[in-house]
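Postdoc handover notes: sequence design on the structure in folder B. Input tokens:
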């Protein structure tokens, strides 16, 4: 099944780009629903997982201090036999959730290391959404209702966490262009322009009308 993965700098509007691209194509959008599905399968509150999503230490490392994560029945026999650590359990479950999603039809998957988890799929277009630093700060300040200084701090911290999480779990440089088919400047193109460019690339790749 055709797949688009959207990796995004915090403040780039990448989630909005993904939602728009999915809407144009009529594909399923798999964004925060990844967290919800993982939480459901592991029997933990979605809000707790969401607060720690894409963080390092990985969101489960701290979650494990307060919750009993995962049960043998939600892991594959091989995974259970390996006695996985809490963070490895969530990564294992996230992989399973993503792989299950892509078997059900064309999807646009946002974040959560999808560009690595689904890297072996030949029917995928991997996209990195970025923007100049000042544009990231402006977007976060406007969206979160904070001063520029706080927005600047948030951009630094969240993007550092995303970079660290991908490096820790998958051994890849999160922002390295060689891991993507398309790198999109959302400040230059705008949300609509970026989405249209991605849709055009997908239609060309997958020979869609």
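Designed sequence:
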């Amino acid at each position: 099944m055709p797949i688009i993965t959207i990796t995004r700098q915090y403040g780039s509007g990448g989630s909005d780009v993904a939602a728009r691209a999915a809407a144009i194509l009529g594909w399923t959008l798999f964004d925060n629903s990844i967290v919800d599905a993982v939480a459901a399968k592991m029997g933990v509150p979605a809000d707790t997982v969401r607060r720690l999503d894409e963080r390092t230490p990985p969101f489960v490392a701290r979650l494990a201090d307060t919750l009993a994560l995962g049960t043998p029945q939600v892991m594959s026999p091989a995974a259970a036999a390996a006695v996985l650590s809490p963070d490895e359990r969530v990564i294992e479950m996230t992989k399973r959730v993503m792989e299950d999603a892509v078997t059900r039809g064309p999807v646009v998957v946002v974040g959560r290391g999808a560009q690595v988890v689904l890297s072996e799929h030949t029917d995928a277009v991997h996209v990195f959404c970025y923007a100049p630093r000042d544009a990231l700060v402006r977007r976060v300040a406007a969206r979160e209702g904070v001063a520029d200084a706080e927005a600047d701090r948030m951009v630094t911290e969240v993007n550092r966490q995303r970079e660290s999480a991908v490096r820790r779990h998958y051994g890849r440089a999160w922002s390295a262009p060689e891991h993507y088919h398309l790198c999109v400047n959302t400040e230059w193109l705008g949300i609509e322009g970026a989405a249209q460019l991605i849709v055009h690339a997908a239609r060309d790749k997958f020979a869609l009308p």
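Context for whoever picks this up: The chain has a mean pLDDT of 81. Don't rerun without checking with the PI first.
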